[in-house]
């Protein structure tokens, strides 16, 4: 339990470390290591999805709009601070039945770094031959969807050139192919997409639904939680799914009678989002 609390504090501090960029006003009583711990993800095993219905409609409209096929590869970027669930959000779209029917092939690349063109192409392809040759054999005259998850800024300042090189290396015979890029970087989001989609914190209602799923079990929500306890938990979660899930899992193993004192003593943070 002590290890889990320490890890959770590190996650909270990771949110604190991004406060200026995302306009967070932060008051806290103690600080641990400024480390954001990223959860392991797999596009074939998506997390349960909460909230983001409006945002998902926007991305689905972009992907499925047959009138928007003037380019061979069109791109939408999803941007937001660490822990907001960009990967989970994109997984819910990647695995959507409408998307499965619309695209002949779907490819998911967990980048977790900058635009290393050769590495990305190698990850997409099982072999070292060109991505273009492989895709032509699989999806001749059919559209593909490519997700580049967790793209970072590079230190050499050549993101523009690398992005252009990557796009030129992708199959371009057919129009209507689509790409989703997830990133924490505003610069990457604007470089890759004309209209980036910004993810923000979940509403209190969606936050509590996600917390309940982790603390009480799927489809369960306790009606016996004191409103002060609920308020204290939501303040610490700040609408950030990564933190919500971590706190939910932690609280699931504790006696409900101890929840309030535990939250106040072990998680003494106050995060108030000031988002425009």
TrEMBL record:
Membrane spanning residue stretches: none
Pfam family, one: NB-ARC
GO terms assigned for molecular function: ADP binding
GO process terms (BP): defense response
Entry superkingdom: Eukaryota
Transport as UniProt keyword: no
Keywords attached to this entry: Plant defense
Domain NB-ARC residues, every copy: 53-216
Species assigned in the record: Salix viminalis (Common osier)
Protein name, UniProt field: NB-ARC domain-containing protein
InterPro entries: Apaf_helical, NB-ARC, P-loop_NTPase
PANTHER family: DISEASE RESISTANCE PROTEIN RGA3 (PTHR36766:SF40), PLANT BROAD-SPECTRUM MILDEW RESISTANCE PROTEIN RPW8 (PTHR36766)
